[in-house]
Write a structure and sequence with these properties.
The chain is built from 12 helices and 12 strands. The chain has 2 domains: about 5-95 and about 175-260 and about 270-330, P-loop containing nucleotide triphosphate hydrolases (Rossmann fold); about 95-175. By secondary structure, it is of the alpha/beta class. The mean pLDDT is about 90. The strands form 2 sheets. Strands 6-7-8-3-9-10-12-11 form an 8-stranded mixed β-sheet, with helices on both faces. Strands 2-1-4-5 form a 4-stranded antiparallel β-sheet, with helices on one face.
Length: about 325
């Protein structure tokens, strides 16, 4: 069995506000090995991005604080690292591609200045060598005439090209782990397909582990090996990508799958998930999804379910599978 590159154990990240404690991430466990892609899926506010920011040590404090858990990267707990040590890891060992490249790139500096500065911060290269590396990277991500385009400003690029620049900057130091936070949300479907293909190509060439944060199950089907579905700061289901589409078990997962438009001759209404995500300051007693769940039982309103093993590499947080998980434990 491959040794995990990253292992997150019982991660809990809370925000302490005047209005109450926001349990943004409340007990997340997962691991990822080199060359694998993990998709983290869920509605806005489910804790996907905060999980990523916790890994990078970018939680604003105050009001945010990681109150429990471990984040083991190459066997070392990142939560024990000082800020100076984390700066060496960010960009070099763990890189991130953000959702909107226009807010991530500085509009008053050329792409060359920003890329060269990033490379020289983490690599022992001269300015000339760093520029040559930047040209090589832009060519690698499919930007034509890279030497000339380096001299331009972010606003002179299209949205897809800016995202390619962000990917080039992220892989500039050959990171072991790349975190992509909804990198295709603002792009049209044609450019989205090109960017996803680029991610797969980069991963294959560099043997990177990738965490793909998205609300789009189409992206999951395209690039992910394993999937963690999150709801209200907790994992609701964890399994491989094929299993999530053919045998998704949690009512929330099936709700997400049913809300995808289907290409059929007959007109069909989309099946929306009823209600709204809960207020993370005032979570309901019992299962947090119960108020929106069509399969909710009386026990669901009082009992908070645990993550249960319901198959090989398949876990689900739902009382519907309590008996199934018990049988599984007995047979094994």
């Amino acid at each position: 069995m491959t040794t995990p590159l990253l292992e997150v154990r019982n991660l809990r990240t809370h925000f302490f506000t005047k209005a109450g404690v926001v349990k943004a991430v409340d007990g997340v466990d997962f691991q990822i090995s080199p060359g694998e892609t993990l998709g983290i899926v869920g509605e806005s506010g489910s804790g996907k991005s905060i999980t990523a920011m916790s890994i990078l040590g970018l939680i604003p404090s105050p009001p945010g604080k990681i109150v429990d858990g471990e984040i083991l990267f190459k066997g070392e707990n990142l939560l024990h690292k000082k800020e100076k040590e984390m700066r060496k890891i960010r960009g070099k060992e763990i890189a991130m591609v953000f959702q909107d490249p226009m807010t991530s790139l500085n509009p008053v500096f050329t792409v060359e200045k920003q890329m060269v500065e990033t490379i020289m911060t983490h690599e022992s290269l001269t300015k000339k060598q760093a520029r040559a590396r930047a040209v090589e990277l832009l060519q690698l991500v499919g930007i034509p005439d890279p030497s000339q385009r380096l001299r331009t400003y972010p606003h002179e690029f299209s949205g897809g090209m800016r995202q390619r620049v962000m990917i080039a900057m992220a892989i500039s130091c050959n990171p072991s782990l790349l975190i992509a936070d909804e990198p295709t949300t603002a792009l049209d479907v044609t450019i989205q397909a090109q960017i996803l293909e680029l991610f797969k190509q980069m991963q294959k060439e560099l043997n990177m582990a990738t965490i793909m944060i998205t609300h789009d199950l189409g992206v999951v089907a395209e690039v992910c090996d394993e999937v963690m579905v999150m709801y209200a700061g907790k994992p609701a289901e964890f399994t491989n990508a094929k299993e999530i589409f053919t045998n998704g078990k949690h009512p929330y997962t099936t709700g997400l799958l049913h809300s995808i438009p289907k290409i059929t001759p007959e007109k069909q209404k989309l099946k929306a998930i009823a209600g709204q995500p809960p207020d993370l300051r005032h979570l309901p007693q019992g299962c947090s999804f119960a108020p929106r769940c069509s399969k909710a039982m009386e026990r669901c309103l009082t009992v908070d379910p645990e993550m249960r093993q319901v198959g090989e590499n398949h876990q689900v947080r739902c009382l519907l599978y309590e008996d199934e998980a018990s049988k599984k434990a007995v047979t094994t």
